[in-house]
Each structure stands twice: as structure tokens, then as C-alpha cells.
UniProtKB/TrEMBL annotation:
Keywords, sorted A to Z: DNA-binding, Transcription, Transcription regulation
Keyword Transcription: yes
SUPFAM superfamilies in UniProt: Homeodomain-like, Tetracyclin repressor-like, C-terminal domain
Organism in which the protein naturally occurs: Pedobacter vanadiisoli
Record feature DNA-binding region, as residue ranges: 28-47
Entry annotated with the keyword Ribosomal protein: no
Source organism, top-level taxon: Bacteria
Protein name: TetR/AcrR family transcriptional regulator
HTH tetR-type domain span: 5-65
Transmembrane annotation, as ranges: none
InterPro entries xrefs: Homeodomain-like_sf (IPR009057), HTH_TetR (IPR001647), Tet_transcr_reg_TetR-rel_C_sf (IPR036271), TetR_C (IPR011075)
Amino acid sequence: MNKAEKTRNFIVEKTAPIFNMKGYAGTSLNDITAATGLTKGSIYGNFANKDEVALAAFDYNLKNVLSRVEKEINKQKYVKDKLLVYINIYQNVISGKVTEGGCPILNTAIDADDTHPALRERAVKAVISWKNSIMKLVEAGIAAKEINAAHNAEQVALTIIAMVEGGIMISRLTAKPAHWNLIMDSLKKYVDSLS
């Protein structure tokens, strides 16, 4: 890795939590320079604009979450246990143990929905990829007779995503972590009902 790549990575690592907590509009160039200790010239010498930094920060935050999900899924033998990994990982996401500021998909989807088409597109791709990953798990579960063939893989995937992201949103909005636990109890029952 050359010096320019190291500097770009440093900028992304230092600013990713800020973009995830404050959003695109809420993150200023002053926030970026304060977090990195670099000058505006150094930032713009490595990125064309704030948009490029924001996109790289989203990718970084998402990769942190996905790598943990993949690692934990690979430890599980049964499909239902693989599906339940999302509950455990996202519990750590909302508590800030994986990424500061919570779920980068939810945060970016809300922040960029009407204001930043490129970030919105990144969030859309992340959700579609997540949906496809869960669908593959469900289809494997059906093939292995762990999941009842009457279930629609896409419906299961969308339900899991909606419950995880909805649980995050409700628990953060109300500042009541117990709401997350109640919703995740319902999700566990839903996953258990798939057989």
C-alpha cells in the first residue's frame, strides 16, 4: 500500500463513524479535518469532494458489519441459527460495538433518501444484497428440509430485514432498548416457525 492509499484509508477510518452518526448533511469539512488532523488541502488532495469521502465511509461501515455477519454465519451449522446471527450482530451494531452510530444501512437510507442519490443507491444495493443473502440461506434450508418448502424465500428475507431495521429504528427513536428485545423475541419466534 503506497502513501496515498494509506492516507485515503486513514481519512475513511477516522470519518466513517462521523458520517454514520451525523449523516452526510450533518458532517462538515471541519468535522473531517478535526477527526483526521489533516488540512482541507490534504483531504481534497486525496478525495475530489465530500461526496467521495461519504461514499467511502459508507462502504467502510458496511464492510465492518458484513464481515462480522459472514464470520458468525460461517460458525453455524443449521440455517435457522445462521438466520439468527443477524439478531446478535445487529444488537452489537446498535450498541456501537461494530460501528459507531448504529446501522449504516438504516442511517444512510434515512439521511440520503431525498438528498443524496449516490448514497441512496449504495443503501439500496446493500439492502438488495442483504435480501439475496438471506434468500440463499432460506433456499438452502428448504433444500435441506430445515425450512418448510411452503415459505417464500423473498418474503422471509424481507420480513427479517424489516424486523431488524424496524427494531433498531424504534428502539433508538424511543430510547428504549427493551423495545429492540421485544421485537427480536418476535423475530426469533418467526424464524423458529419456518420449519
